[in-house]
Structure formats: structure tokens, C-alpha cells
Amino acid sequence: MNPIKICFILICLAITGNVQSQCNPVFKKMSNQPGPLPSGYIWEEASITEMSPNSYFSVSAVQRFSNGGNSNVIVFHLSDTGWVKLPSVFLGTRNNHKLHVINGEYYLTGRWKKVNTKTAPAGKFYTAIKLVSGLWDTLPGSTEDSSQLETRFASSSHGLYRALIRDSIDVNKQHYAIGLIQQYDTSLQKFNPLTSVIGGLYGFSFISGKNRTLIGGISKINNQSTYGFGYIIGNTIKRNTVSSAFTPYQGYMLDAYNDHIYQLDMSNKPLIKEFDSTFVQSIQTSYIVSGSYGDLGVYNGKVLYTTFESGKNNRNINILCKGQTVWSTIVQEGWGGWANRLSSASGFYVLDHSGFIRELGEGRRIEGKLFIDLDSNCVFTDSIDKKIINRFVEARSDTYIAGATSDTFGNYIIYVDSDTFGLKAPSLPSNCAYDSVIIDTMSIVHNLPRKKPGYFDLKAQFFNGFNARWNSISTITIETDNIGDAADSADIDVYFDSRLTLLNMPAGFTVQSGNHVKAKIKNLGYFDRRRYSFDLWIDSGQTKPDTLICHSLSAYLYNNDADSSNNIDGLCQRVTYSYDPNHISCDYKRILPRTPKLLEYFIEFQNEGNDDAYDVTLKNTLPPALLPETFTALGASHAYKLSLNERNLVIEFPNIMLKPKLNDEEKSKGFFKYSIMTRGDLKNNTQIDNFVDIYFDLNKPVRTNTSVVLVSDLTTDINEPNKVAASMNIYPNPGNSNVKVMNVTDGELIVYNTLGEIVSKLSIVNGQCEINVSEWANGVYYFRCGEMTSVFVKTQ
Fold first, then answer.
1. Which of 256, 337, 429, 465 is the most buried (most CB within 10 A)?
2. Percentages of the chain per state (helix, strand, coil), in multiples of 5
């Protein structure tokens, strides 16, 4: 068998009473991949939602231009003999191009005003082009009026067809689309009318097949009633008059393997109906699937259906094994967005954001419960142990990182391939010694008991980008995370830059003096995480673009805190003039060559559309200068799922429900924060460029700015880092008299105030020194010795 012809094998297990399937599908990267892209091109994922099933499949690469969104496209087609790279062609705006392979000939359909040297007549577009002698050329007779509402194309071995959406009719105040179906006549070089159709309540679908073309979700063909669908073989139109089980609604798909017609009834327990020349079968599935998108694929009797599953924070790929009734569900791991799913003549595939094709095959599943093991027996006891909800669980191997946030029952499910994985929940210590999992079976249940810490430990950090907009309101968010035993109370002190004006602060906080605010928080439970947001005005009279504004945070328990190093945090932000809310920023602008440096990246996104964003996906290809194995997730605005395969980082926020910016500014925003180490061999003048593609539901990605970190041996000053790292120990901190500086490289210690002025210089001997701060003004100070830095807060 040709290795390209991959068979998707679903393994069925016997369950008491009847035979059901247990599938653990994952999308694995194919060994045979498209060729390298020319400079300036990116993978165009939205173009592969439906393929001509006569071929295996194709993917497209697009070169983006700034002039009105116009671009060039290259199509890669996978055939029996491997990948075929087709020539590039100019694409106009709003061009949803699709490749058709008809008896070995290549056609592209879409909308073109110009093809090579040919320009469409005034008020018209070319809608189909053909590859002739290695070049794309217009297809005679394929122009249409620019006033045409919508055009869809499909094909089979009998040729190319198009459906013109002409108008709609109203029946009892419901709209039903009217379409005109045409077939391309190669001898007459024009599209000839075949029939008219009237769609169901949701329009109709037009789908390519091997030997027939499906018209799904219709009520009439040429004014004659049909049960839900019809199909075309050659120039003959077939109405479904033999099975009334089918209805005139969306949810239709052709099996790319044998041309069988499927309909999925969109209900909580989807009903699958199959038709060949007569009714074949009806499958009442028993798994409840909600919030359907109607995204359906079929291959050799196996059904793939994507949904948003409300109430469980999941966006799912649901697989129905052939002949079974129970759905197997996986949470999509990120490298293939929902628009990238396709069923072709040889299986199910997705295209990831870096251009790798992945095939759906049998994978592995790790599932379990995250809980506090209060009785210390490493076994979950419902009446004793405490479930840990909304905490990230990570599975990490030598080459792959994946994870998910535990749900409201403490459960997590992570899909991986066969390997040895270490499981952990960051910041939560284990009481048991089996957090390493060798997964070589279809699935494994592996609970994660976390021990009752037995000590007190509070962590505090800022959650903000490293840039802030000039002459506007800046919202600063802080977080306290009780990662130890339950505690009675803690004090929080925040010092905001004195040049800002404090507008609003959370309940319980009071102003001590200037921009110093304080609060006492009480009743901190196990793993109790709390966030507080403050609004500050960045005054144009006090600052200017590129000014550095700095803030500090400290939070201390009244109990003895086991780790004081995580009780303080500092944040410095560069004031910028223009600021895109979909943004990535780094805590350093410049680092030294040949010196590993831990960088922190902060990704911000905002829904600027006119409706709720149900799901958001972040796709970030890590630059070569960064070490993927050192990646650590530091937190996010909402529950998330993560995968990191090679350098392809994907963060999914299922069911995030971001409000439109115009409706609710605060609830329209989200963020993700991570740290990662640079390589230790980076040469002088190396530039680390990092950007993110942000997907709001099924829309095309929004690309952020490019965060730039320069590797340079130039002498830097206090303004170089945007984030002040707590890399030396200062005790006590905050303090008001004598403080000790410890664990520092010998050399000169320099202390700066928030204006960048030098306050003091001291010599470090044997890794420590002592300094009297009683005469210093209250506020924030920055300690630096070589590359080591830390924040200190002077109090009364």
C-alpha cells in the first residue's frame, strides 16, 4: 500500500451488554510534508475546509500584502505520488479559494478581478481558473456579475459545478434561499443551467464527491419536493423521493470514501442518517453533545463532528466509530483550528499553523483527578479528600508538553502520544511517588494526589504587559496565590509609580500615602487564588512615550511564610504612544550575549468584534533562540488547555465567552503569561523576534506585534529590563532600617530610585552586604549587581 494512503483505525472494546468503541484519537504529524514556503508566505488554513474528494487533499500558502488585504496563493496538492506544488496566482479580496482535481486537471475557484495579464470586464469577476501548460489561466465562460450574492463550487469525476445563490423567499416570515445549479460544459466553454433549488431554513450545502455532487439541506429541486437533499451524477439531477427520514436542514456530508450521504440532526443526542441509493441506516447516538456548529466529516463510515460542549469548558472533536453509538471525544490540542479540519479520500487531517499536516490516528489518553490527599493514602476518598478545581495539570516528555485545567469536579483529560510523561500541577507538592507515567496503552487513569502542604506559603505577582499606553487609563492586575496551608490573613502592599494618578481600586484597599495602597485579606483557603485590579491614569504631563514607569508588590502572611522570595514582584512598563490590544511583550529589551536569560512573555488579546467570542486560540511559534524544554506557564486570565510540540505552542481558551469591547471593556480582554530560557550560545547582535496569531472563534487570525529582544554586549542602564526580576535576596523586604542583601555575585551593588537616579553604591564581598535605608524616602528601589536585579520597598 502506498504510505500516503493512511487508514484511520479505530479500536473497539467490548463493554458489558453490547459492543461499543473506545477511541483515543490524536493528530500525528505525517512524515511526508509539503515543501518549504517562499519568503513572505504563511499557511492559509481557512482554505481547506472542504476538498474535492477525488484527490487526497491540498493545503494553501498565502503571501500577505498590506494593500487592502490582497495576496498571492500557492496550492500544494497531495497525490498518489507525493506533494505537487502548483504555481502561485494573485488573489483578490474576499476570495475563498478552493482546489478541484477533476480527472487529473487542476481548477481553482473563487473570485478574481485579475488573473496574470487578464482583467475582468467592468462589474464582473472571474470565478474559476484552470492550470494550463504550467500557468493559471481564466476559464472561459466563468465570469459572473459583481452583484451576485454568493457563489459556491463543487466537483466530481463528471466535472465542475457551481451554485448561484440568487435570492430568498419568505414563508411564514422564514427565509429560504433560492439557488441555481450549473454545470461547466468544456466543449461550449460555459456554465449551463441544470436546475433550481430551494434551501431549507438554514440555506443549503454544496459538496464535492467522487462520482456525485451533493446538494444538502433543500426542500425543492426544480419546484419539485425532495426529502432534504438531492445529488448530481453527470448532468442528471436526482431527488430523494425514497426516504422521508431526511430533513431540509444543514448537517449534510458525503463520505469521501464511497459517496454515501450522511445527515446529522443537531440535537443533544445527534441522530446520524446514512443513504446510498436507498436508506441505509439510522444511528441514535447515546452521548450528549451540545452547542453544535454543524461541522461534519465522514470517512469510510466514521463520523467526525466538532462541537462546543457547554458547561465543561471544552471545545471538542467528537469521533463516532463505524457501527457504534457512543461518541469518543477529544479536546482539540491546538495545532489545527476548527476551520482546518477536513475529510478527504484517505482519512481525516488538519493543517497546523506552521505548515505541518497531521493525520488522525489512534493515540493515548491520560485522565484523572487532582485532589488534596488529606488522609495521606494516595487514593481519592470523596468524603475526606478535597478536589482541586481550575488548576493547570501538565504532562511533559522530552519532546512534548500538553496540559489542561481541572474542571469543577477536579477532573482532567490530556491527549498525548506513546511516551514517558511526567505529570505535575505547578506549585502543588506531591505526597506520592508515581508522578511519572509510561503510557503505552490506549488510555490510563492516573490521579494526582497533592499533599496538604504542612507549611504556609503565599505567592504574589503582577499580571500585566510590559507596555502601557500614554495619556490613557492603565489597568494593573495583581494576584495572590495561597500555595500552602489555609491561613487566617495576609497583608498586601502595592506601590504604583508616583507619576500616575490612581483612579479606582478594589474594595478593602486603602491609600496609605501617595500611590501606596494596602489591604488585609482574610480566610485564605487551600490553593486560594485571588485577583485585584486597579485603574491608573498615565498623565501626558508627567510622562512621555518611552518613559519607564515602575510598580512593586508585596504580600505577606501573618503566619511564618515558608518562601519569602515569591512574596514580592516588580513591574516596569514602557509608555507607548499607540498600543494594539492584541499584543505580546517581553520583560527584557536587551540581554547579554552567551549568557542564558530567563525571559517572561505576556500575551494580551481583546474581542473587538460585535458579538461574543466563544473560544480563543493563541498560536506561537517559539523563536530558535529560546529553549522549548524550559517553557513554564505562569498563568492566564481564564481556564485553558496547552500543547507544545517542538516549537509550536498553542493555548486554547474554550468557552471563554469574551464580550465585545463596545459592550464591556473589561470582560472583552484576556491574557496568557509564560517564561522561557534563552540559549547560552547567542552571539552579539542576535535578534529574538516573537509574535502570536490569535484566533477568535472561526475568524482568520489576528497577528500581534513582534516582540524584539536584542542580544548585545553594550553597557546597559536601569531602563533596559522592563520586568525587575527578584534574583537576589533582600531581607527584610519591605524594610525601614538595616536590610541584608544576600546570595549576590561579588562586585559593585548599585541602587536606583524610580527615576533611574543612583541612590547608593556598595561593595559585595562573600556574596552579601548590609545597608541602612532609614534615611531613604518611602517607595520603590531597584538593586543591581551585574546581571542580578531585585526590587526593594522602603516603608516607614
1. 256
2. 0, 55, 45
